[in-house]
Amino acid sequence: MKSFFNVKSWRGRSLRSRVALATVVVAGLALAVPGASTAATKASKKPLIVWIDTSRIPYEQAYMKANPHANIKWVIYNGNENGTGVLQSKFALWNRIGWPSVAPDVMFDSQNYDAVQLGTAPYNDLLNLAKYVPASVLKGYAGHSMSACTTPSGQIVCLRNDTAADVLWVDQGLYTKFFGKAPVPTTWAGIVADGQMLKKSHPD
């Protein structure tokens, strides 16, 4: 699982400014208005600092190609399991001595446990996204897929952002044998429903 999370301790900026800047970035992605900002404006404001692992470099390049005026500083970090201890050490140090200007505003991470660990004691460094992400978006995640992004107290500290697609191959002959002319399902819910039906009609 790969996740996105918003770092709460945002270099002294207020919660309102954090959310406002994040909203501007999202709007730029959705609207992609050309010429919405100028190079001078970009240089005069602090950039949004986004940490990504190496697997996301193509996405960063594609985003900047589509949004050349986006004021974002991309930082490549070790986002695999070997980097987890280093990441936690950095957060622990920053909580003691203060957050540097290079600290991330947003992170993309490949480890399930990083988000909840950094979003709970003794860190408590991640923004609770529950107030800012529409309920309709959260409900769109299947089953318990958001459990790794939810703290014991119910805070949503990250969003799943999987980049690895699963491909299922269907034996059309067998499918027709068991389900007749029914169309092959295109959603996980449909696949589960077919499995339950097959189990019920062929318990052995």
Q: What is the averaged pLDDT score?
A: 75
User: What's the main sheet like?
Assistant: 5 strands, mixed
Low-confidence stretches: 9-41
Number of helices: 8
Question: How many strands?
Answer: 5
The structure class reads: alpha/beta
Share in helix: 40-55%
Using the CA coordinates, give the radius of gyration.
21 Å
**What percentage of amino acids are in beta strands?**
5-15%
What is the number of independent domains?
Answer: 2
Q: What spatial form do the alpha-carbon principal axes imply?
A: elongated
Strand neighbour order, sheet with most strands: 3-2-4-1-5
Q: How far apart lie the N and C ends?
A: 34 Å
* N-to-C order of helices and strands: EHHEHEHEHHEHH
Brief sketch in words of this structure:
By secondary structure, the chain is an alpha/beta fold. The radius of gyration is 21 Å and the shape is elongated.
Task: Identify the notable features of this structure and list them briefly.
204 residues, alpha/beta, 2 domains, 5-stranded mixed beta sheet, 8 helices, elongated
